[in-house]
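An example makes the point: we print one protein in full, the chain in one-letter code, the fold tokenised, without further comment:
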Amino acid sequence: MSGPWPAHPVIYELSTLPWLNEIAARSGRPVTLDSVPAAEWDGVALPGVDAVWLMGVWERSPAGRAIAQHDRALRQELYELLPDATDADIVGSPYCVRSYRVDLLFGGPEGLSVARAELAARGVRVLLDFVPNHVAPDHDWVTAHPDYFVRGTEADLGVEPPAFMKTDAGVIALGRDPYFPPWPDVVQLDPTRPSLRAAVIETLSDIASQCDGVRCDMAMLQLDDVVAQTWGDRVGPTGAVPYWTEVTRAVQTLHPNFLFVAESYWDREPDLIAQGFDHCYDKRLYDRLVSDSAGSVRDHLAADPEYQRRLVRFLENHDEPRAAAVFPADRGEAAAVVVATLPGALLLFQGQFAGRRHHMPVQLARWPAEPPSAVQEALWRRLLDLSVGEGLRSGRWSVLGVSGWPDNDSCRNLLAWQWEGEHHRHLIVVNFSGTSADGLVHVEGTTGSDWDLTDVLDGQSYQRAGADMDPATGGGLYVSRGPFEAHLFRLIRIADADVAASSSDLE
């Protein structure tokens, strides 16, 4: 597909190999990306979905597979999840990349080309992975370009053997996050090397010819200051231009509408956005939705709206536990309304609609069967339908104030924001607490008209005078919600309506 991405895209992540194996089990034949039945593409290219992230399509490493198959903890987890498992079920990590060529498991480059065409015909783009921090130990670069890597010595092998690997090209550091032990199946790239930067730009430019964007794994690890702090004098000096600035500018010069999405932690999202990323994971919001109060979520949403638009909201992905296993049902439904109605990208994960509860390691080829949840399916399809039919995630977004009165502090548990477009206006109010809450929502700019408020979640309608809702005239919309309940109002002006003075409350 050509043209700019939507400002607030909905991205659906597929764990590609387990997904294809589930289709194969249903159809009774092997399935690759070029032989997926049309009905299966229809099932993922749902109305409201802008892009499908085909996670893990690149050629996997035989060396990485062998390491995974000898991992006792992984094998124990596998047998607990799949009692009938065999070695064939451990295929190695999709982030242990041997080559940025589509694996033959998926039909090779031709299979991806067919998949992209099928999705494009349904108005859906394709997102793929890029792993900037490391590659597999049997990647061609290890022998052809050993200068691309953080190097070690024989002495390092003796002092810190879990952190280095001996290869045909010498001793190379294993890839790592500085807060955790090194990953045993990957070797560390050195982003201070100009030659490596050029190779990355060439690789990403080739990837950009095959898809519409990339999700960059652990992108903050390649920030210049993080590299320097992690590796010290094992790497060279930082360049005049930051690594990510150089890479994103070069690729988007050749492919202007190519999207860069960063997996990001440690609150480094502003730095990654400044260096060219279109969207960054909002892990901080996820953590707050899991365990914090409404006030913590409200504080998070006080950031600049343009910055909010650059974040990726999610309740689960392949790295996080399943939402159905983490969130109690009522809190989970409230969190779903929150992430689905905020600005930015919305990331959904395969099995999320069905309410899957088992978190599966990415090294596994198949998942256990789980009974689907009709409640979760209905909730997410309803929220996606609203995105399309209501134009919900479009226009100008703003947080609204909520106030109470001297003997009422439950208003602190109400979250409120609105979307205003050329032809629509929506108000979202969520009681993000386990107790009832009420208060006055300050709906700005409503004076001078009367309004119909229809809750598109339950179909109930109410009429109110704009002056009674607008803080400019001392007003506020009275809202009362039970634990973790939400309103999602469509606001429509009523011309010359006779709005009865009513003391009835919104319940």
User: Anything to note?
Assistant: The first strand starts at residue 10 and ends at 15. The first helix runs from residue 16 to 27.
